[in-house]
Structures are given as structure tokens and as C-alpha cells.
Write a structure and sequence with these properties.
single chain; 7 helices; 5-stranded parallel sheet; Rossmann fold; alpha/beta; 185 residues; 4-stranded mixed sheet
């Protein structure tokens, strides 16, 4: 395929439903590539190395930063996250649209490097609903939940800097809205 793909930056607070919405988007559309991020955080139950994230040590992460192997990287909730650049560039050349599920700091870095990237912010319907979702996971301590809620309060105002904001009040509807944006890029 000769047509180059597009990069879609997808951000939103932890618990906003990004993963659920994106899973539905991938069910409905071909020629999409999900960029697997690297992280220093521990895997959650059911997460697989190389599928959900590349789970690496802080030392390895720092080496990759020094070698300029990330399209973006940031600290978030006391862990490091980054987008390996090589696979993204390769898939774009192959004509795939690339989805980057990254937090707002990383989104700003990618947008600065790739102004043509299309940014999408997935917002929860309310902070109360966000807290309910985070608690419903039953995977994190009270301290982590409070940290994620505090981080979310700082992230939500960033939505106005994104090209599109999708409120995830119903994941099927939100996935449809996201697909419309991707298909019309």
C-alpha cells in the first residue's frame, strides 16, 4: 500500500475507558496498529508483556531514552512510560493508521514532533464516575486510586488542547465516534 497512515494520539485519565473503547474500535476496523508502550510499572492481572505493554526496568528505560529510541516518554503516577519510535514509523510506511494510547505529557511531545498527528481525548462523564470505575477495578491500593484521581483533575483541563474530545458515557457510542474521526482523517 502506497498511502502513508496517520497517527492518532489517544489520551484520557486512568479509568476513562480508553482501553475498552479502543478494543471496540479495533474490532470494527482493519489496518490499525496499536503502538505498544514501554513501562516500568508492574503488570496488572491478565496483562501480557509485548501485548499490553513492554514491561521493562527503570535502568533499561533510561538506556532507551539515552539512545533516543522513544517517540515520547514521561513519568506518570511514579512510573515511566514511552512509545518506541521504530515500530510506529514502520507501520506508517506500510500504510497503517497508528493508535498511540498515551497520557497528556506524551501527547504533547508527539504533537510537537508530529504536528500532523490527530489528537483525541477520551473523557469520563464525571469525576464521580471516574472514581467509581477506578474502584471497580479492584487492582489498586487506596493510595494509588487517590493519586490517579488527583492526576485526572490535572489532566481534564488539557482536553481543550486536543483536536477532538470524546466523552465515554457509553463505550459503544464512544467507539463509534472515535471510528468516525479515524475514518475521516
Amino acid at each position: 500500500m502506497s498511502e502513508r497512515g496517520h497517527v492518532f494520539i489517544v489520551s484520557g485519565p486512568s479509568g476513562s475507558g480508553k482501553s475498552t473503547v479502543l478494543r471496540e474500535v479495533f474490532k470494527r476496523r482493519d489496518r490499525l496498529y496499536f503502538s505498544v508502550s514501554a513501562t516500568t510499572r508492574a503488570p496488572r492481572p491478565g496483562e501480557r508483556d509485548g501485548v499490553d505493554y513492554w514491561f521493562i526496568t527503570e535502568e533499561r528505560f533510561d538506556e532507551m531514552v539515552e539512545q533516543d529510541q522513544f517517540l515520547e516518554h514521561a513519568r506518570y503516577a511514579k512510573c515511566s512510560y514511552g512509545t518506541p519510535a521504530g515500530p510506529v514509523r514502520e507501520k506508517l510506511r506500510e500504510g497503517f493508521d497508528v493508535i498511540l494510547d498515551i497520557e497528556v505529557q506524551g501527547g504533547r511531545q508527539v504533537k510537537a514532533r508530529m504536528p500532523e498527528a490527530i489528537s483525541l481525548f477520551i473523557a469520563p462523564p464525571s469525576l464521580e464516575e471516574l472514581e467509581r470505575r477506578l474502584r471497580g477495578r479492584s487492582t489498586e491500593s487506596e493510595e494509588k486510586i487517590k493519586l490517579r484521581l488527583e492526576t485526572a483533575k490535572n489532566e481534564l483541563p488539557e482536553a481543550e488542547k486536543y483536536d477532538h474530545v470524546v466523552v465515554n458515557d457509553d463505550y459503544m457510542r464512544a467507539a463509534g465516534e472515535l471510528l468516525d474521526i479515524i475514518n475521516n482523517a
